[in-house]
Amino acid sequence: MKIHQDEPLDFDFQKDRISGFFNVFKAHFWALCKKRYLYFKRDYKSFGCEIFLPILLIALGFLASSSLSFSNWDPIKLTLEEYSKDESNMEVYLGGTIGTVS
């Protein structure tokens, strides 16, 4: 179909524009989901690496954390005995060199 120059074009961008924050977000999210589906349809191995492998690793992490009993460990004692009371011997890290505070 050929459009002649003298024929007026009857369309309005304001009618076709999506308005509202949630509606724009929903349209973009749906477009990204359709794009992801088309990529997965071509490359099904990536579906396993992006969905099933992380689920498997999370499940293994939950299994490992539930099988170990951390409640039997002795509590850590936080005391200041390890720090030197004489500040003149304190070593500090200053941009690549170790020096003493004087």
Keywords:
102 residues; mainly alpha; two-stranded antiparallel ribbon; 3 helices; 8% strand; elongated
What does this structure look like?
The chain is mostly helical and 102 residues long. The chain has a domain at 19-71. It is 49% helix and 8% strand. The protein is built from 3 helices and 2 strands; from the N terminus they run H-H-H-E-E. It has a two-stranded antiparallel sheet with strand order 1-2. A hairpin with a 2-residue loop joins strand 1 and strand 2 (97-100). The termini are far apart.
**Spatial strand sequence of the major β-sheet:** 1-2
As a percent range, the share of helical residues equals 40-55%
- How much strand content do the residues show? 5-15%
Number of strands: 2
* Main β-sheet description: 2 strands, antiparallel
Q: Assign the structural class, choosing from mainly alpha, mainly beta, alpha/beta, alpha+beta, or little secondary structure.
A: mainly alpha
Tell me the Rg in angstroms.
32 Å
Average pLDDT level: 76
Q: How many helices?
A: 3
Q: Which shape, going by the Cα principal axes?
A: elongated
Low-confidence stretches: none
- How many angstroms separate the termini? 87 Å
> Oligomeric status of the shown chains?
single chain
The succession of helices and strands, N to C, reads HHHEE
Task: Summarize the SSE layout with pairings.
Layout: H1 13-16, H2 21-42, H3 44-67, E1 91-94, E2 97-100
Antiparallel strand pairs: 1-2
